[in-house]
Each structure stands twice: as structure tokens, then as C-alpha cells.
Amino acid sequence: MKIESIRAAVRFAGLVLPFTWTSGSLAAQMRATAQASSYGVSVSTATVNQKSPSAVLPAGEMMATDQANAVTVDGLVSAQDAFAIVNGDLTDGSGAVSSATLGAVNILNGLITADGVVAMASSTVGSADAEGSSLSNLVVNGVSLSDPAPNTRVDLPGTGYVVLNEQIPTSGGITVNMIHVVLQQPVLDLLGGVTGYQTVGNIIVGSASSSM
Amino acid sequence: MSHLRSLASVTAIGAIALIAASCEANRQALAPTIGAPRFHFFVFQCQPLKMTGGGRIDFPPGTADKNPPASHEYETFGAHVMSSGQTDANGVCLADKGALEWIDHRPEMRLNGSPLNLHATEIDFAELAVDTDCSDGAVHWGGKLRVQNNGQENLDFEVWDCDNGEPGAGHDGFAIRVNEPIDGIGDYAVMCPDPDLPPAEPSCTLTGGNRQFHPTH
Lengths: 212, 217
Hints:
The complex is a heterodimer of chains A (212) and B (217). Chain A has 212 residues and is an alpha+beta fold. Chain A contains one helix and 16 strands. In chain A, strands 3, 4, 5, 6, 7, 8, 9, 10, 11 and 12 form a ten-stranded antiparallel sheet that branches. In chain A, strands 2-1-16-15-14-13 form a six-stranded antiparallel sheet, with no helix packed on it. The termini of chain A are far apart. Chain B has one domain (25-35, 42-214). Chain B is globular and about 40 Å long. The A-B interface holds A 62-63, 65, 67, 69, 81, 83, 85-89, 92, 94-99, 101, 103, 115-116, 118, 120, 122, 124, 127, 129, 131-137, 146-147 and B 50, 52-56, 66, 69-70, 72, 74, 76-80, 99, 101, 103, 105, 113-115, 117, 148, 166-170, 206-210, 212, 214.
């Protein structure tokens, strides 16, 4: 009888414990993924790692802002009138709205220009969208582009490529990068032939993320 | 018969009392002073509330349609307010905390070489509006702000804030008025007083973002 009781207890624990572990870990995972942030300009290469202005919603707070009249990374990007704003409540399911706005933007010495960038990411429990995001007077490699559709890719010969109005669904939210330049270098074989391309850096202008 | 007459009399008295009560503004707080008649944001209650989020407005005209991007005729903001529903000795619905960051991107609103940037320094009042078409909740709130472009401080402002369901774009509303002239700008307001313009005038319709209302602190 005693052995049977122990076996029953073990079986019971084996049935119950996974559920308690799962719900606890799931709750922790949900808290861990709730976030809201935005930034004006980000440059990451082998020699540069810069992000400005940047706003991240802290736990327990409901607003974060940052601003920069001008952002310059020599030879790579310059931007004017950059604002990053995040507002919301991540702890009670209220959701959050992140925005990054910029004025005149110049990337890679005029390869890409725009005079108005708005990145907006809005999320509540069960929904997320990028409504309100826009690009004004965008010119890519000499070609004017009006209101590019989400995730529009344009190749930049000799440089890499750019993704415009990049919208990335995340767990419970969305990340919006209005101009995302992927810098690439060719991979050469022993004879100097190009066998592919490798990413050597990223330039992002106007980014907003929000998830619940 | 006499019973019926008594009942009719009581009913009539009750009806008159109800009509009289509804004619008075059920307001226990600071009143907005817009000159034109309004159909919304006129009846208020003091109760616990919270409104969070931010967004974008394309004003003018402040409808659900975005202006052409090249026009730069848009505003972006982040704002929240919380109230526990308490009042002060004058009956003003007190706000517990809040914040406002407002950017006007219109070229004609640039001040000292930058987009007009308003930053709230204190949030004083917040009252629940109970006469709007905002399905989830509406709040009239305000306080004082600073003009970041030139440092001008202690300007009174008020906001008409509307959560009209999800998504916020095309449904929610927001309006702001600074009640004192801004140096270099003059009178400033982003308001949409058209009673036919959803969701609830004078709030303008969001073209991006979201307002989230909670009926609790």
C-alpha cells in the first residue's frame, strides 16, 4: 500500500507539475517579450556602433523620449530634427505606441535622401500595426519613390541593398524600420570571382518597435 | 381617478426635474472655453481613469486620411494621464500623473529652426467625458507645458482625448489647445470642431498610433 501511495503521488506530481511550470514560464515569457522602443538613426559596422536619439520604455514607467537636432555619422548618414517617443503601459496590457520622426535625411553621400521620416509601431494585446508610418520625398539612387509598400527592396549596386518601410512581425508586436540599408561586400574565390555577398554593416533610419 | 391625477402630477414633476438637471452641465471640473456650440465633451465625471499611448494626426484637416507625405502637414505625440477620481476644494477633478510630448512637423510651425515641440511639465486635471461617441472612453485633461524650442514655460494647455476602439488609426481622437500665446507662433491649437467628424469633436482623428483607455487608476 505504501508503495502504491508513493507511485500515485509520483504520477500526480508528474501530471500537475508540468502545468505549473508551463504557466509560470509562459507568464515570464510574456513579460519578457513586452517592450517598446524607438530610435532615429542606427549605424552598425566593424568600426561604428551608434544609435541616436533613442527611447526605450522602462519597466514601471509610461513614457520615454529623446531628441537630437542633428545626427551625423561621417560618410554614412546625416539626419535633422530627430525625435523618439514611446508611451504606454506594458504591465497591464494597455499596449504601447512607439514613434521615430526625422526631417532631412542623407544616407551614403546622397545615395538615399528623404525630407521626412515617420516610423510608428502600435501594439495592444492581440494586435499590432504600423499605421502612420511614412516617407517624404524619398529618392533612392536617383529614382523618386512615393509611398513604398511594406518591405520594398531596392538593390544598391556596389553597396548592398535597402529595404524601405520594413515591417517585421514580432512575438506580440511589430518592428518598423523605414529605411534599412544592408551594406555588403562581395565574397571572392581564389580566382577573384564573386561567389556571393556578405553583410558588413547596417544603417537604419526611423525605427519603432512595440510588442505585448 | 384622483390616484391617476396624483400619479400624473408626480410624473410630471419628476420629468421637469430630470430635464432641468440634464440642462445643467454635470461638471465638477475646469471647463473648456470653446466659443462654438459642441455636442461632445460637455458632460464630465470625476472617477478613476487612465489613458495612454500616442500617435499621429494629419492636421489640417485632421481626418482619417493622411496628407501627402511631401506636405509635412502632420503632428506626432506621446501622452498619458492617470487620475484616482479625487477632487480639490473647488471641485476640480485632479490628475495624479501624466505626460505629453507633442511635435508639430508643419513647416509653418517651425520655431528657432526646429519643429514645434511642446513638453508638459505638470498635469493638473483629468475628467471623464460621458457624452461622447468614444466607445472605450474619453478624457478631458490638461496642465502646464514648456515650449522646448524657446524655453517658454508655464503655459496652460488642455487635451480632448478619445479611445474609440481598435485599431487607433482612423478611430481614436486627440486635440490640444495651448491657452496662452506661444512666442513666435501666437495662438496654438490642433482641434477639429466639426461635429460631423468622428470620433468626437473637437478631437481630430488619428492617422497612426492608438489611445488606450482604462476605467481604473
